[in-house]
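look at this one:
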Amino acid sequence: QLHVAESGGGSVQAGGSLRLSCAASGRTEYILSMAWFHQAPGKERQFVASFRLSGRGIVYADSVKGRFTISRENAKSTVFLQMNSLKPEDAGVYYCAVQRIGGNNYEYWGQGTQVTVSS
């Protein structure tokens, strides 16, 4: 079993920055990848970025390339999402998710953390 917890959301003006954290606990040796998803008000949840713990593959959604950076704390099951040049459309709930080795999807999700961006 894996547990996922996010932190670091808050309110910021457009153009500002926030750093989100995601910590996984439990059977972390089975983690293949950790990712961030974004759900804007009234919209479906969408992929933002992912970090493959083995092989260090990193993927970004086109909408955040050059503005957001996903990173991992030294060999630990903690990833960060540094969000710079935030736009009002980046507002919403950010979820961290974990895919286990052998899994087809992101099966383990956190509760989400709220990001507000004012124009």
Summary: Residues 52 and 73 are 13 Å apart (CA to CA).
